[in-house]
Amino acid sequence: MTPPPAPPVLAVLTTVDTEQAARTLAEGAVGEGLAACAQISGPITSVYHWHGRLTTDQEWQVLFKTTESAYPALESRLLAIHPYDTPEIIATPVVHGSPAYLAWVAAEVTA
Questions:
Q1: CA angle, residues 16, 17, 22, in degrees to nearest 5
Q2: Within 10 Å of residue 109's Cβ, how many Cβ atoms?
Q3: Is the pTM of this model over 0.90?
Q4: What is residue 79's DSSP assignment?
Q5: Does 9 map to a domain?
Q6: Is residue 73 left, alpha or beta, with left meaning phi > 0 and alpha meaning psi from -120 to 50?
């Protein structure tokens, strides 16, 4: 008998201005069961317009894996503690993945 499919999984990306802020977001989300895991990459260089100026800054990316049903709670938590006025929070559906990994994500996300 085939096990039931795992619920839809999302990869959720945000960026912050310090490694410590990235760790705080990652540890909070995973610790609260809002994400199964989070990877921190950086520093990266971001180029964008802000308040009418072309800006280049060093940032750290945090990539969370969560379920579609837990996304609203994860987004709400990130918005509540994110250091930016207008944070980048982007969710992308995981279209394909290892069934065992997707099941693990679903089992780890408890929110």
A1: 50
A2: 27
A3: yes
A4: H
A5: no
A6: alpha
Nearest by Cα to 106 from 39, 9, 4, 2: 9
- The per-residue DSSP string of 40-57 comes to EEEEEEEEEEETTEEEEE
In degrees and rounded to multiples of 5, residue 26 shows phi and psi of: -65, -50
CATH number at residue 74: 3.30.70.120
- Domain count within the chain: 1
Nearest-angstrom CA–CA distance, 31 and 17: 21
CB atoms within 10 A of CB 44: 11
pLDDT in tens, the chain (111 residues): 665 666 799 999 999 999 999 999 999 999 999 999 999 999 999 999 999 999 999 999 999 999 999 999 999 999 999 999 999 999 999 999 999 999 999 999 998
